[in-house]
Write a structure and sequence with these properties.
Mean pLDDT: 85
Distance between the termini: 65 Å
Low-confidence stretches: 766-781
Largest sheet: 8 strands, mixed, barrel
Oligomer: single chain
Strand content: 15-25%
Strand order of the largest sheet: 13-14-16-17-18-19-20-21
Number of helices: 28
Number of strands: 21
Helix content: 55-70%
């Protein structure tokens, strides 16, 4: 069946399921409508109530007629599936509209109990749609959304906090329904697909068998004759070959004397005038034959019609039986290792959960992953990797008891199921840990892989279960989480699942979701930290991003920037920062006092190596019409590690239009004189970790002097960040560093406060050095 035919068949089956299961929901709808009408009769106008109830009944009758028409119709062909589906959806829509209207028409003012009953009825009605209409997600969505939306709006319009909460809860309930619709629809579609595939396979097998029978009519088959004493009087060559013997040895054989007597009933039936058929296993006692045969026996009569013996036609069906066994094995066993696969595991785990619930004895699920398996596969080839997996499977099986179970999930992942552990949690953990340690020791022994010696580490995550406290999917997920925690602790280790692990993963997912919302809603804003030279004159500022979460409040950059880089959200964030910085430069460029102020913007590695990064910068500068020399991009040393050649190409392209580059946090990462010599940098930025203890730490003093001297030799500008004391500034100036950034000159400030500080700093002063503090400015740290 091709993809198009399969899709049509699935739609046909979904439609058939919708109509076949439609009567009960219609009856339930009628009953609910009647109950609702009766309950609301004292608080709703009888005219409205009767009209609404009559509409419901009319719709139910119409949809019932439609359902019966479909079930009796001779035009239910696959070609007309879409037409019948449209009719069904139209019925759903009309029904949903009338039910949805109840959210307004049957919503009595100042009658909380009746209002709650109405909400309860509509919620129950839509809950039924999860199963009734799950075969068609569009029908389910139409029904639930149209039914619930009016009551949600009506609750919202009341305006009171309780009703607002009910409206929100109803909305969440609707969302939950939508998720369940999609999930159930997927399951139904998968089940239909599996059933159709099974039908196809069965039809294929039947067709093959039919072809096989036709071929037998024209192909050599095993044929033999026997008399009334069950003595074989004739055998053809093929029959003897089936028995792994010779014709001479077979003729004269007394069938009664053989040990395998399963064929005797059909041989006897032939002597009694009946046709006998046998299909099964046959082991010859007089030869080495061990085969599956299909035998048909018929009576053999003389010219007078007297039965004088029987005729047997024998076919060797061993290959067919082996193929059937292989198909069965493929369904439940991993073809590479011979271990049970995920499908077999699921059935076995369900059985283990039930047993644990009945006996109250605990069980354990171990999720095992081979460390560095990908490296072995990539370096030595998949054949070597497969050899390792086979040997791992053998060692795992050897480590386990008779009632334990091991399966391969795929790749280098295995699951071990241990049952009949102690009822006490700590004893169960100890028992499981003993098994897991033995597994780690066994798997850590030397492997011989096609004359290649290899030693492998493994990581094991363990979850202890007790009955049906958790589903099998939850247990596998928890064991998986524990396994990754074992990898973090240190490879070749094991770790028991702790709910805190789940909480940490959930918190990270929520944090990532919040960050995506922040990007979508632009919950970020910019701070500016002033940069000064030794002549106490502002030379620029560094742009710093801040995030104010609606619930969490201020989120430090150290918390969200790594996640943004990991998820790729740093790219749109960084582009926004660059655009905002250039927009600000445009405004300052129009003022004589600030026209020469530069802005430094941090650029992440992921953003820097975007294919269109250069084009983005060029476009932004062109759009705002700013002097490109006022924009300085700060790169971290991690950029240098990826590709020095590609880095130079990108930098040269931007330097060509006037952009300057500063190497941020210099000395803390992959500092290399070779990099510094080749990179077209404008400035080195001394990391604040070397400045913090500069007044008292001689090592820091030596490092700072070295950086300044090296920059001077390479003709690079130098700026020090984290300058907080006059003593630090003086040391830097004395040693040749004349540009500074830090709390001594100003903390990061919002734009208005920064501009006030900037104007104050740019105001005429005497020649002595003075520090402009930010004590009078509002600071949101």
């Amino acid at each position: 069946m091709n993809t198009l035919d399969k899709k049509t068949a699935i739609q046909f089956e979904q439609l058939r399921q919708l109509y076949s299961e439609n009567i009960i929901p219609l009856v339930n709808s009628a009953i609910l409508a009647l109950i609702l009408a009766v309950m609301q009769r004292d608080v709703i106008s009888s005219t409205v109530l009767v009209s609404w109830f009559s509409s419901i009944i009319l719709i139910i009758v119409s949809r019932t007629i439609l359902t019966l028409s479909y079930q009796r119709s001779s035009s239910r062909s696959k070609n007309r599936t879409y037409l019948w589906l449209l009719r069904f959806r139209l019925g759903i829509l009309i029904s949903a509209v009338v039910w949805g209207a109840a959210g307004f028409l049957l919503f009595p003012a100042n009658e909380p109990q009746h209002q709650m009953f109405l909400l309860f009825t509509l919620a129950g009605l839509t809950a039924g749609a999860v199963t009734s209409y799950a075969a068609d997600v569009v029908s389910a969505l139409i029904f639930s959304v149209v039914v619930l939306t009016p009551i949600i709006i009506r609750l919202f319009l009341v305006g009171e906090s309780l009703y607002l909460a009910m409206s929100l809860a109803s909305t969440l309930y609707l969302g939950y329904l939508v998720i369940n619709f999609r999930h159930n629809n997927r399951n139904i579609s998968d089940n239909i697909l599996l059933r159709l595939e099974a039908i196809d396979r069965e039809a294929t097998v039947k067709t093959s068998e039919e072809h096989y029978r036709l071929l037998l009519s024209y192909s050599p088959v095993g044929i033999f004759h026997y008399d009334t004493n069950f003595i074989i009087t004739y055998s053809n060559t093929h029959f003897a070959e089936i028995l792994n013997s010779s014709v001479e040895s077979v003729i004269g054989l007394n069938i009664k004397a053989i040990k395998h007597q399963a064929v005797m009933p059909i041989l006897s039936n032939a002597l009694e005038g009946e046709i006998g058929i046998y299909e099964g296993h046959y082991i010859a006692s007089f030869s080495t034959a061990d085969v599956w045969i299909s035998m048909t026996c018929a009576p053999f009569k003389n010219s007078k019609g007297v039965i004088i013996g029987g005729i047997g036609i024998v076919q060797d069906i061993s290959e067919r039986k082996i193929a059937e066994e292989k198909i069965k094995n493929l369904a439940f066993y991993d073809p590479l290792t011979g271990l049970p696969n995920r499908r077999f595991l699921q059935a076995r785990l369900n059985q283990a959960l039930a047993t644990s619930a009945n006996t109250e004895r605990r069980g354990a699920l171990l999720f095992l992953d081979l460390d560095h398996f990908k490296l072995l596969n990539d370096s030595r080839g998949h054949d070597i990797g497969d050899l390792l997996l086979k040997q791992v499977a053998e060692r795992l099986s050897a480590c386990l008891g008779e009632n334990d179970f091991v399966a391969r999930l795929g790749g280098d992942e295995f699951l071990v199921l241990i049952e009949n552990l102690s009822e006490h949690p700590f004893e169960a953990c100890a028992q499981t840990e003993l098994v897991a340690r033995n597994i780690l020791i066994s798997l850590n022994q030397l492997y011989f892989l096609d004359q290649y010696e290899y030693r492998n580490d493994s990581s094991i995550g363990i979850v202890i279960f007790n009955g049906h406290d958790h589903s099998q999917d939850e247990l596998i997920k928890q064991a998986d989480i524990a396994m990754y925690q074992a990898k973090k602790i240190g490879r070749n280790n094991l770790c028991f699942f702790n709910p805190l692990m789940q909480e940490a993963i959930t918190a990270r997912i929520e944090f990532e979701h919040d960050l995506r919302k922040a990007v979508e809603n632009w919950q970020f804003y910019l701070y500016y930290q002033i940069q000064m030279n030794s002549s106490h004159h502002p030379i620029g500022a560094e742009v710093l991003i801040r995030w104010c979460h609606p619930q969490r409040g201020f989120v430090p950059p150290a918390e969200f920037i790594p996640l943004a880089e990991e998820t790729g959200m740093i790219v749109p964030i960084g582009l926004w920062v660059l655009d905002s910085a250039c927009a600000q430069l445009k405004l300052w460029q129009q003022e004589p006092l600030t026209r020469n102020i530069t802005l430094s913007v941090n650029v992440s590695t992921k953003q820097f190596f975007q294919d269109d990064f250069v084009t983005q910068i060029q476009t932004i500068i062109l759009n705002y019409g700013i002097k490109s020399s006022l924009l300085k991009l700060e790169l971290t040393e991690s950029v240098l590690v990826k590709s020095i050649e590609e880095t130079i190409v990108i930098m040269d392209a931007l330097i060509a239009i006037g952009i300057k580059f500063s190497l941020d946090d210099f000395g803390t990462g992959y500092s290399s004189l070779q990099y510094l010599k080749r990179l077209p940098l404008y400035q080195l930025k001394i990391d604040q970790s070397f400045i913090r203890d500069l007044a008292v730490d001689s090592d820091d003093q030596t490092i700072v002097r070295t950086i300044i001297a090296m920059a001077d030799k390479l003709h690079l500008n130098v700026i020090a960040e984290g300058v907080e004391t006059e003593e630090q500034r003086q040391f830097l100036q004395d040693n040749g560093c004349v540009n500074y950034q830090g709390y001594l000159f100003g903390k990061p400030l919002v734009l208005d406060d920064f501009e006030a500080l900037l104007k104050q700093s740019l105001a005429p002063t005497d020649d002595s050095f003075s520090v402009i503090t930010t004590a009078d400015f509002s600071i949101d740290r």
